[in-house]
Design a protein that fits this description.
278 residues; alpha/beta; Aldehyde Dehydrogenase, Chain A, domain 1; Aldehyde Dehydrogenase, Chain A, domain 2; 2 domains; seven-stranded mixed β-sheet; two-stranded parallel ribbon; 8 helices; 11 strands; 37% helix; globular
Amino acid sequence: MCHVLSGWNACIALVCGNCVVWKGAPTTPLVTIAMTKIVASVLEKNNLPGSIFTALCGGAEIGEAIAKDTRIPLVSFTRSSKVGLVVQQTVSQRFGKCLLELSGNNAIIVMDDADIELAVCSVLFAAVGTAGQRCTTCRRLLVHETVYEKVLEPLVEVYKQVKIGDPLENGTLLGPVHTRTSRENFEKGIQNIKSQGGKILTGGSVIESEGNFVHPTIVEISPKPKIVKEELFGPVLYVMKFKTFEEAVEVNNSVPQESISTFKGGVSSDSANGGKVA
């Protein structure tokens, strides 16, 4: 489970009087242990057993055991849609319940009356923060044709100024991607983007140094290529122009996973993650 979402879901479960057994990603065992110790210490300070919040470390076999265990009435799972479907089927076979948070291909729509400065700042953080490695990352930017250049020019400039490096240092916006495999997937993704007609406006390369650092990337592309409909788990933003709001909504809904934010008159409104826009 994603460590952020584990906090959201665990808090709800604990407040409702439940015990929590959870497993973090197999590549982040130290974070899993650290979080568990923090929560356990809070419980113990309030005269409750720390074992109310218990962690397990391991691979897919642990997750499979949790999904099959009838003593666990509700299973919360965060990862890909493909694996999430397997989890749902496994839990449903024993009449358990699932809370699934799967994939993401979020869009931000910038209308012609938007506050451009606000939109640019919001897009930068949404697309680059956490190196694009969260399901709520902004991956698609749809801009009204009349303000397209007004949005794109300052956005490209601020992308070029992003401080990349140690996330513990002040001013760093972009830390490393998660693993060497993540870095390799970024490189493969850029190759696929180019082969499918995408134009790299900035970024599009890895940083040759210790660590898995990549440049934040903006891609000008149409909404039709297959790559746009997939989740490239990294700081890659697809930008597209549109004429009408209805057209933008249609583009948003053309992918299998999406949520939407609309900048209209300087106001952002979000639909539920994973929901279509009517």
